[in-house]
Amino acid sequence: MRATLMYGAGDVRVAEVADPTIVEPTDAIIRVTHACVCGSDLHPYHDLEATPEGRPMGHEAIGVVEELGADVTTLSVGDTVIVPFAFSDGTCAFCRDGITTSCVHGGFFDALETGATQAERLRVPQADGTAVVIPAGTDESLMPSLLTLSDVYLTGHHAAVRGGVEAGRSVVVIGDGAVGLSAVLAAKQLGAETIILMGRHASRTDLGREFGATHVVAERGEEGIAKVLELTGGEGAHVVLEAVGHMPAYEQAYGVVRPGGTISRVGVPQYEEAPVGFASLFGKNATLTGGPATVRAYLEQALPLVLDGTIEPGRVFDRELPLDEIAEAYRLMDSREALKVLIRP
Amino acid sequence: MRATLMYGAGDVRVAEVADPTIVEPTDAIIRVTHACVCGSDLHPYHDLEATPEGRPMGHEAIGVVEELGADVTTLSVGDTVIVPFAFSDGTCAFCRDGITTSCVHGGFFDALETGATQAERLRVPQADGTAVVIPAGTDESLMPSLLTLSDVYLTGHHAAVRGGVEAGRSVVVIGDGAVGLSAVLAAKQLGAETIILMGRHASRTDLGREFGATHVVAERGEEGIAKVLELTGGEGAHVVLEAVGHMPAYEQAYGVVRPGGTISRVGVPQYEEAPVGFASLFGKNATLTGGPATVRAYLEQALPLVLDGTIEPGRVFDRELPLDEIAEAYRLMDSREALKVLIRP
Q1: Which residues of chain A are within 8 Å of residue B233 when distances are taken between CB atoms?
Q2: How far is it, in rounded angstroms, from Cα A103 to Cα A96?
Q3: Under an 8 A CB cutoff, do B288 and A283 touch?
Q4: Interface contact A99-B286, CB threshold 8 A
Q5: Which of A101, A264, A281 to mutate to test the interface with B (most CBs of B within 10 A)?
Q6: Which of A17, A327, B2, B181 has the largest count of CB atoms under 10 Å?
Q7: Which of A266, A290, A314 is the last residue of a domain?
Q8: pLDDT one-digit tens code per residue, B158-217
Q9: How many domains does chain A have?
Q10: What is the pLDDT of residues A316-331, one digit of tens each?
Q11: Which range marks the domain in which residue B257 is found?
């Protein structure tokens, strides 16, 4: 089959690789119909060392079940399913807590062992726990929005849920990428009153306004912090959703959070150490939360909202390309010419 | 009056200083009847630079109101009051949120401008918002427990509340000092099922068991983490209450916290930067919270529990000395010969 491999920074190609096969009786094989490029795919695109064997890429997918392991009971061949970026058994102690990304039998896609979604076919481990069936007959026009339930929209939702967004809260969203815009939409859904989107790309922040942002702050650093404080009566925001992952975004977050407020991170931190002492978090009783989105735990609740048109998170896709043009998809996203590119393998 | 001044590391003396006076119409002056030495007083005791003018010490007090500013309406001369370690107006946006330590008109005791409690008299700023009256006729035997409501018990309580301790949760308390033991008692009050106290001083951990600890782990570092994991079925604890403030305690905290769990810090961090990335907090969706205890926000609720004997947090005091022997009090606590020393000025 054709699959996307990254051979080093900036070097993404479609290659012919072996088809995935059932390895464990809990596996399923799907034919990928919809995949996409994630903002986090750009991290290796910037800094992956030379990898002669190629790193499989992609962790968001919708596909059709082609083959099932002997132990899979909830899926049928021919089902169209959403596959979250992390697989999980749905039964372990952490899955029962809703922390599906820490499943004891779980893991993440786009590794050599697990395969990846920017490809024609995918092995889905723990298929019963992982895949969610889309009702037969669902209109093709809903697929982009359904695809966002594999990662980007529910990552924004995770930020908002872990941050404790609720009616009447003031929320700052840092980052106008697809995750940041998803966080705006999720915060709106959860009843946030004031939603301040920090970003400087007008085409993106315009979509942010349509998703529910009440204010846009283009300034960064101290200026950006001052602007948010001004918009919140000098008090700061109850909740800050950090959808970038770089240190300046984190610094912005603790600068704008209200005493007693919460910073919720879903941008994968590109740092390990950060300020957490008296001068940053501790002194104002700020809470730091977030992590890899527990997409699977939210998926069944979110599905009907997409199917009935309550939310349209697929609007983050502004381009669509065939798998063979995956390199162009990465280029478009890296250069910010595209917000998020949908791929049809 | 006589007051405690610290002139440098290890150098604590009682000196004759001017009596405090009403500065703002919202002030009260109290005659301090009960004060004590806090674990956090040991930080400057270890590292205060030479301070020829002396630094006033102490931030926990019970006292009798001697004089009131013109705007104070809720107190009367002769009232016996508890004074929390931070003063607050009780009316600003942050006080209304319960984050009284971030009060816009508030501040902390033991600074030159605000005075300190290891002294015969104290100026209490924002007296209406700050001081809480102890009912007339309260038995003297309850005073040690009531004194803990100015800081140490309610700091443990703050850790437990911010950490989300509730029925059925597993809790690890790091530190067997007076705050750690208070955190055990508070966690027990909030319904924690398993309470694992990490500490190695048997006389202290014995009191911890009486306060509600179900297990004691004396091991530290990797060994201590392994022991806690063993006690929690390999899963880690829902809530970790960190009552030390040094980096090894923080490292222990993220080592033992369960995926999706919460680390709540009340030990004043003696560091600004710490691990918060994928390998420590983010990867397992751990939450980091805590800060200076919002004692005042809990005080009215805790008072009846002490008065009716439900809790006896004053058991953390194992020594009592007159003000003139304050240097000995510091020495006893620093050498760990005493857990916490009550001072009678």
Answers
A1: 93
A2: 9
A3: no
A4: no
A5: A281
A6: B181
A7: A290
A8: 999 999 999 999 999 999 999 999 999 999 999 999 999 999 999 999 999 999 999 999
A9: 2
A10: 999 999 999 999 999 9
A11: 154-290
